[in-house]
Design a protein that fits this description.
171 residues; 5-stranded mixed beta sheet
Length: 171
């Protein structure tokens, strides 16, 4: 890093929330889905710093400026009988890429897995994001090509919850 800038990875604090929301929106814009990034500062404050947080965040900080983040939560493998860590988001501002922030965030999460005996460290990446795919491969990550992500949202989620999983199903 030039000029003596010091990169630090640390747990997010409540006073980081506005910056986190801004960074999340930058990631959403990069992923061509800005209109889907509707989480608010209040949402992040509640879920990251409420009485029983189930989602966590690390930030990459250079001399007091947040340049990146990782948001993650625990999952569970019934096959391993162990928790795992699922990385929801990893993002480093383009102007700060190449400083090692992404690697430092991932290293901190890998260390958390090792320290707690978690069996897996997983995340999803868009299939067109070649820079990210190449970066993850360089770290030794393996693509799980035989698995596809499935998602229910909106009306489909409501229909299944109400017992009418198919559109027009009223029986």
């Amino acid at each position: 890093m030039s000029g003596g800038a010091a990169l630090a990875v640390r747990p997010a604090r409540a006073d980081d929330v506005a910056d986190l929301v801004s960074l999340v929106r930058e990631l959403a814009a990069y992923e061509r889905a800005l209109e889907q990034a509707i989480a608010t500062e209040a949402d992040f404050t509640r879920d990251l710093f409420g009485p029983s947080p189930r989602v966590h965040a690390l930030v990459a900080d250079v001399d007091g400026t947040l340049i990146g983040y990782a948001i993650y939560f625990l999952n569970y493998s019934t096959w391993l009988g162990k928790h795992g860590l699922f990385l929801e988001d990893l993002y480093v501002r383009p102007a700060h890429r190449g400083l090692g922030a992404g690697t430092a965030l991932l290293r901190a999460l890998a260390q958390e897995c090792v320290d707690h005996g978690y069996g897996r460290f997983e995340w999803s990446v868009l299939d067109w994001n070649e820079p990210a795919l190449g970066f993850y491969r360089s770290l030794g990550a393996n693509a799980m090509d035989e698995w596809t992500v499935q998602r229910l949202t909106g009306d489909a989620l409501g229909r299944l919850a109400s017992g009418h999983p198919r559109a027009g199903d009223t029986t």
